[in-house]
Write a structure and sequence with these properties.
The protein has about 70 residues and is mostly helical. It has one domain. About 70% of the residues lie in helices and about 0% in strands. Helix 2 runs antiparallel to helix 3.
C-alpha cells in the first residue's frame, strides 16, 4: 500500500517501477527485468490513479463554483 501511495504521488515513480521489475523469488537476489507484470501494473495504476484524482478535483471545483 505504501508503494501504491508513493506511486500515485508521481514522485520518482520510474525508480520504484524498475526496482519492482527486478524482484525475483523469495530468498534470491534481484534479476534485471525478470518480472514485467509489475511494470505493467505500475503503469496501469498510474493511469487509473491520475485519472481518478483529476476527475475528483474537477468534480470538487465544479460543485464548489456551481
Amino acid at each position: 500500500m505504501l508503494v501504491c501511495f508513493s506511486e500515485s504521488s508521481g514522485e520518482s515513480w520510474p525508480d520504484i517501477m524498475f526496482r519492482l521489475m527486478d524482484v525475483s523469488e523469495v530468498d534470491y537476489g534481484p534479476v534485471i527485468e525478470i518480472n514485467k507484470f509489475n511494470g505493467m501494473f505500475i503503469i496501469v495504476f498510474m493511469l487509473v490513479a491520475n485519472f481518478f484524482l483529476m476527475n475528483f478535483f474537477t468534480g470538487v471545483l465544479f460543485l464548489k463554483y456551481e
